[in-house]
Write a structure and sequence with these properties.
CATH architecture of the largest domain: 3-Layer(aba) Sandwich
Number of helices: 8
Bound molecules: magnesium ion
CATH superfamily of the largest domain: HAD superfamily/HAD-like
Radius of gyration: 18 Å
Strand order of the largest sheet: 1-12-11-10-2-3
CATH class of the largest domain: Alpha Beta
Helix content: 25-40%
Number of domains: 2
CATH topology of the largest domain: Rossmann fold
Structural class: alpha/beta
Shape: globular
Number of strands: 12
Strand content: 15-25%
Largest sheet: 6 strands, parallel
């Protein structure tokens, strides 16, 4: 199968970008740069907000973080834990849209406990991610955030083990996230936008008017879903693991790549 590599973002036609009204974006190593959010990157989010764009981060990060993000950042909603839920603010109150019912969650958590035991028995040095305590739906295994980076083969063995236990497993730039439930970042965004998002945002959803930006294999469903998508430059590290590529690739990594997209979107709108 021949894979279509992305074009350089700087070559994206203005006519393709000028119709964009909403941006969905990954956080780790897309919006953040080596573990920090740069002042210029955070400021670029405010520039988008002030220019009237709709903004929805889509992340593998936990519910505890997403509660903070939706309340304090200039965003319209946040998809968290790889699509387990969407948090959004309505009349100053934080609302949530969960994919699993309470019964499904309770059964998923039992299965996840069993899986955790199996992971521990096979990988004796395994460390849960330091944000595990703030998660509601998934188990995050750290392979390079606060631990010595794992070799790729070991990450693949872990993913294999999770999948052999009928769990979903996705690889971000720092964690393997595993869960029980049929959802991912893209399917949840799609459900929320159709059930609630359109009336909440006051915006008839057209995926041609949205763009997605990400950095790693767990962004692949979104690269497939959105007709217009972007990879930050560090996505190149994962090219050999991707089946679907974004439309464009930034000249710069992480936050600086995000800022490149912001500059082009704002320029295209005022052109
Ligand atoms: Mg990421």
């Amino acid at each position: 199968m021949i894979k279509k590599l992305p074009e350089l973002l700087e070559k994206a036609p203005t006519s393709e970008l000028s119709s964009i009204k909403g941006i969905c974006f990954d956080i780790d190593d897309t919006f953040s740069s080596e573990g920090k959010i740069l002042a210029s990157t955070f400021n670029s989010l405010w520039r988008l907000k002030e220019a009237g764009f709709l903004l929805i981060p889509v992340t593998g990060r936990p519910a505890g973080w997403c509660d903070h993000i939706v309340r304090f950042w200039p965003v319209d909603a946040v998809v968290g834990e790889n699509g387990a839920f969407v948090f959004y603010m309505d009349g100053g109150k934080r609302e949530r849209f969960d994919i699993l019912s309470a019964e499904e969650l309770s059964s998923a958590q039992k299965s996840l406990k069993q899986l955790a035991k199996k992971i521990k028995s096979k990988f004796s040095d395994v460390m849960w991610a330091s944000d595990q305590a703030y998660r509601e739906f998934d188990l995050a295994i750290d392979f390079c955030e606060d631990v010595k980076p794992w070799p790729v083969a070991k990450i693949e063995q872990l993913v294999e083990l999770c999948r052999s236990e009928q769990a979903i497993a996705k690889v971000s730039s720092i964690h393997v996230n595993t869960w029980y439930g049929i959802y991912d970042k893209q399917t949840t965004f799609d459900k929320w936008i159709n059930d609630i998002g359109e009336s909440y945002l006051g915006h008839a959803f057209d995926k041609n008017e949205w763009i997605y930006i990400g950095d790693s294999p767990n962004d692949e469903p979104a690269f497939e879903y959105f007709p217009k998508s972007v990879g930050v430059e560090n996505l190149k590290d994962f090219y050999n693991q991707l089946e679907t590529f974004p439309t464009w690739i930034c000249n710069y990594p992480s936050g600086k790549g995000f800022e490149q997209l912001v500059d082009l979107l704002i320029k295209a709108r005022s052109a």
